[in-house]
Design a protein that fits this description.
InterPro entries: Acetolactate_synth/TF_NikR_C (IPR027271), ACT-like_dom_sf (IPR045865), FeFe-hyd_TM1266 (IPR023860)
Protein name: Transcription factor NikR nickel binding C-terminal domain-containing protein
Strand content: over 45%
Number of domains: 1
Structural class: alpha+beta
Distance between the termini: 13 Å
Number of helices: 2
Order of helices and strands: EHEEHE
Organism: Thermotalea metallivorans
Shape: globular
Largest sheet: 4 strands, antiparallel
CATH architecture: 2-Layer Sandwich
CATH class: Alpha Beta
CATH superfamily: ACT-like. Chain A, domain 2
Number of strands: 4
CATH topology: Alpha-Beta Plaits
Helix content: 25-40%
Length: 80
């Protein structure tokens, strides 16, 4: 069984980036076992998505590369 891990995604310019981020997350939805998203009330254009993942590291790296290829996206990952 693949290990559990956590990914955080900071989204700047939410109105522009959110649809593209959503498309990537949907494409890799089979690895996502939990998702929590918030926006910064003080900064309307910024948001944070936290994902709980169970997946092969190669697939996770692929998803990270796709996300990081988007303007205004910063990704961190931690394996449990």
């Amino acid at each position: 069984m693949d290990p559990l891990s956590v990914m955080s995604i900071r989204v700047d310019h939410r109105a522009d980036a959110a649809p593209k981020v959503q498309e990537i997350l949907t494409k890799h939805g089979d690895m996502i076992i939990g998702r929590f998203g918030i926006h910064d009330p003080g900064e309307v254009n910024h948001g944070l998505i936290t994902l709980n993942l169970r997946g092969d590291m190669e697939k996770i790296r692929h998803m990270m590369e796709q996300l990081e290829g988007l303007e205004g996206i910063k990704v961190n990952h931690m394996q449990a």
